[in-house]
Design brief:
The structure is a homodimer of 674-residue chains. The first copy, chain A, has 674 residues and is α/β, with parallel strands linked by helices. Chain A has three domains: 14-133, Chitobiase/beta-hexosaminidase domain 2-like (Chitobiase, domain 2); 139-478, Glycosidases (TIM Barrel, Alpha-Beta Barrel), CATH 3.20.20; 505-549 and 587-663, Alpha-d-glucuronidase, C-terminal Domain (Alpha-Beta Complex). In chain A, 35% of the residues lie in helices and 13% in strands. An eight-stranded parallel barrel of chain A has the order 7-12-13-14-15-16-17-18. The first copy, chain A, has a six-stranded mixed sheet with strand order 2-1-3-5-4-6. In chain A, strands 8-9 form a two-stranded antiparallel sheet. In chain A, helix 2 (32-48) links the parallel strand 1 (24-28) and strand 2. In chain A, helix 16 (487-498) runs antiparallel to helix 20. The longest helix of chain A has 33 residues, at 631-663. Chain A starts with 17 loop residues before the first helix and ends in an 11-residue tail after the last helix. The mean pLDDT of chain A is 96. Chains A and B meet through helix 21 of A and helix 21 of B. Chains A, B: It is an enzyme of class 3 (hydrolase).
Chain lengths: 674, 674
Amino acid sequence: MTTPDRVHPAWLPPEAFRAIGSRRTLVLGDGLLAETVHDEVAQASARYGGSVRRAGDGPYDLVLALTTAEALPGVAGEVRPDSAIGDEGYVLARRDGVTVVLADEPAGLLYGLFHVVRLGERAFAGERPAEHHRPAVRRRMLDHWDNVDVHPVMGQVERGYAGGSVFWRDGAPRGDLARVRAYARLLAACGINAISVNNVNVHATEAHLLTDRLGDVAALADVFRPYGIRVHLSVSFASPVVVGGLPTSDPLDEDVRKWWADVTGRVYDTIPDFGGYVVKADSEGQPGPFAYGRDHADGANLLAEALAPYGGVVHWRAFVYNHRQDWRDRSTDRARAAYDHFAPLDGRFRDNVILQVKHGPIDFQPREPVSPVIAAMPATRVAVELQVTQEYTGQQRHVCYLAPMWREVLGFRPWGADGSDVADLVGGGDLVAVSNIGDDPYWTGHPLAQANLYAFGRLAWEPRLDPVAILDEWIDLTFVPAATGDTERLRRTLHEIMDDSWRTYERYTAPLGVGFMVRPGHHYGPDVDGYEYTPWGTYHFADRDGVGVDRTRATGTGFTGQYPPPWSEVYESLADCPDELLLFFHHVPYGHVLRSGSTVIQHIYDTHFAGAEQAAEAGRRWEEAVGLFDPALHARVKDLLDEQVRCAEEWRDQINAYFFRKSGVPDARGRRIP
Amino acid sequence: MTTPDRVHPAWLPPEAFRAIGSRRTLVLGDGLLAETVHDEVAQASARYGGSVRRAGDGPYDLVLALTTAEALPGVAGEVRPDSAIGDEGYVLARRDGVTVVLADEPAGLLYGLFHVVRLGERAFAGERPAEHHRPAVRRRMLDHWDNVDVHPVMGQVERGYAGGSVFWRDGAPRGDLARVRAYARLLAACGINAISVNNVNVHATEAHLLTDRLGDVAALADVFRPYGIRVHLSVSFASPVVVGGLPTSDPLDEDVRKWWADVTGRVYDTIPDFGGYVVKADSEGQPGPFAYGRDHADGANLLAEALAPYGGVVHWRAFVYNHRQDWRDRSTDRARAAYDHFAPLDGRFRDNVILQVKHGPIDFQPREPVSPVIAAMPATRVAVELQVTQEYTGQQRHVCYLAPMWREVLGFRPWGADGSDVADLVGGGDLVAVSNIGDDPYWTGHPLAQANLYAFGRLAWEPRLDPVAILDEWIDLTFVPAATGDTERLRRTLHEIMDDSWRTYERYTAPLGVGFMVRPGHHYGPDVDGYEYTPWGTYHFADRDGVGVDRTRATGTGFTGQYPPPWSEVYESLADCPDELLLFFHHVPYGHVLRSGSTVIQHIYDTHFAGAEQAAEAGRRWEEAVGLFDPALHARVKDLLDEQVRCAEEWRDQINAYFFRKSGVPDARGRRIP
């Protein structure tokens, strides 16, 4: 695979700062983040001939100032915000030839600066009435599933498809803080303000990050801090035993409580703006409160109590289910597990516990309904967890632009059209995602997978952004500033390949929301029965007559009852259930007619032929665009698209062959099925 | 799992030497192996009060003497062999109260000694007319798939189920030569006389055993030598490049030939009785002559030429096939591969090339037809390769006594009832097997898996031995000498559990010879479609109507044509094909009536219910035998039988559910299928 000599600048190429860098800019404000803003402008100015001015040294083209600053130039005074805009918000306006960004706090200045960067020359044209910007989601967080030691199966980064960790290598900090700084800058530019720096599966070495290896974490915090990003840590619930030498980790044990209080105090002594703990407990082999006959509220509150004096939070993952299920037992339903475990605990969690819920009830499949837990716990702070790393969506070998899926999740209204949507529910709270970057020169392995990280940050800031518009932003930052060819064609090529790529991926993989037809273990490529007879709780129940999981109340596992109306009725009803989720909720005969008018079996054939063809078409589009991109990047993407086309055909043929062998129904259009 | 404190003596417990050790014995003969015999007797005598006498110091109860020895006592002279009995043969007789073993060479004395050990007190009772014993197979060889470095996937021992290697640990020799010596002794006692000490997949470190790490091999050879065992080495065909620094490994290149000649000369300087090279070439990623446009005769002859001056041999594996096959392509047939590659080369191999052919055409499945290659190359020395390590037969967690399968292979007559059998074809040649031992205290993980290693050695010496009789020998050596309870019940228990265990295993796993329904990669436990859509060439083609691989000439891949008549006709015929191989040769509807009178689908259900029940029955038998065995050994086997019962039920349920879902045919006996 083609590899460039240096690290790719992603959505912050120097050329993206040309508009700012050629202007006269005033930066007014004190504090670490204001210095960052000043340095960014100074660097751009040095490159493009502009200047950073002092107060009184006007005229200015751009003013970036704190509302509290003295000596605000007149035009800035005119655009003062109507009210407090929060510690990350800003007002953007342009009057009388001066572009103004005002913020109450330095973080707002930083986000305002990157807004101006996104606008480019448009920031300096015409007039612009005052726009108030503030993030819809208070904590916009990335979870790194990075190991410190190389895990024998999962490697340095669990579910990482972009090389090693940028933080850790072979059991030690990597020490490449310049790379971490570049990463922090990219994150700030898309709005991320929190990061967890190690895997939620906390192995032996990683458990020590909390105590004797805390210095390693502090070194990272020092690099993230100037970009407004607080560092969090994944900890083992068994830490009191594993690193503390106590005989128990019982959350109601006084020594255990004291241990956590002491340890947490030392953490804040070292990292005063430390964010908090992330915990995967009683899940897939990780230790938890169940070992002591306690529940998850007991467990989470233990850590929350220790963090509370310092303003820290616990992200407590709701991904708890029986991963040793008997596949013969059709009454147990993994989809029900998170709700069954957590909904009864609503109201029992401390204020600084954030229950972190995967967006779907199973596990980051390309298509799942929204988790019913999100709407089921009004008295609990709930964070929604997305997966930027493409574990089940092509592993950064396939183009799969995920923003449209996330937009659907965030726009889902659990109580129907008149109620709040998921974005409202997490508003003021947390949106979390699993990172997709590594030490690959393109950060994300697949260069086009950078768009997913960018889009996550932007959606966390403003969940109602249109995915197409986000892609435009990303293209205009990443490719356009340094482009030499036809930028309209470049933009069109990327939209053609990326806009619908998630639905393309869905078409050629598991059909109609049924999920989990991937190869066990690594989860890449098709294996229709790969999980069918395993303890993982992920089944499709295909037989010669039909396929799908009956999760109705009437005849199935009753999962539909975890939703409020109208969804409890919509999903329950074979007639009303959306086609794309049909097999998630119902077991139907192959001849069942979908709302689309097609039968299930013909839908399977049609979508799989179509999906593979769309992948091939994306490959052809990319080849035609050979002159529009940097040659090394073009070559890398071409190699990956070749693999995507091959793998899409493999999916098409395996899925079609499997269902043809089972159903005996020929393709109505007479295409070849192996 | 229960682990004893010390290494288990396997079939050589001290008590097995009680009969000899309490007698007056004369050992007459010079040489290393005669010394071994002398030391064995001396050790036993020290324990049990007997004595080793000098010539002229009679009377004796036992005489072990070379025919060339001077001062043979009279009774020995009377039993002189009729003719030369070869360098490993011996004559055994008893006259006038004296048991006599005579051999032409010291190795014969050693094998004769172990014969007397097997007989125990029976060796010293009554009269015994002279019996001439000599091995049917000249080279009785074990291949160790042991790595020197720990392989990231395969571990220290590839397909090893008994812990680490007894030779290597973490990249270096283990240095536990006492353990190697104990192993050599066990091997000699069952008749093994050759051993290859490293994996046929030769990785980077292991390639150096041939050159700068040859001393590691010599140290092992020194330990094996006193037990009549010659050491062989697996080498990389790419050695001239990999360790020699040459630009090519082309077998027709003069520098390459010279390199092999030089290197081999140095090997024999260091290990004068070195056995030769084992090579896996152009197979599953291993380098070979194809890279240079040469064929396997060119490749094998290159090494043979280098070894010839020293009497060494090349074992050249015939396991060559396309492991990147397109599963959609039903015309390519992995079963054909070895014949297609090698049969045309018959007559082109040098005399000291031994073509090493797996016993079946695919890969050590619990049931395969005998490979047609074995009978197809009359002008080539052919070795048959068996697999003692239970890769596909329960991985030493299941009881699976393999001697009945091997006996069937050795007794197969490619030209029908009037022709030679496989044992004849390898007679005077080689029988090879992949070892099943490791550093586990019981050597083989499952204590009862020791019987497989013992049986392999005994069948290699005398291929027409009855597996039940071999099991008796093994029980009488391993358990009876130190038993304190009811030895008849002990013997009966083991026969009940072991005699039919291979057929039990066959019953609950892949049906009717179809093979490969194991979990990909590690090959343990069921996954019916696990290999169905992969590049490995191992398919069953089950659909809603039927199952099996059509390998006929009439409508299939033509594999049946690789057999001479009558088998080419028997296997071709749906009516005549043996039931147990039906799905290996034919694709049939589920309603097809077998020769047994059952339908295919009902046979699948019946055998799977029966097999799982037989496994459970074995578990109950073992529990009843709790007082008859050493408690630690009993506990170990009990744990393993629990796992076998669980896994057999898993096989039963997955196979039955799979075929019920696909066929829709209910069980005629109304049993529950999940």
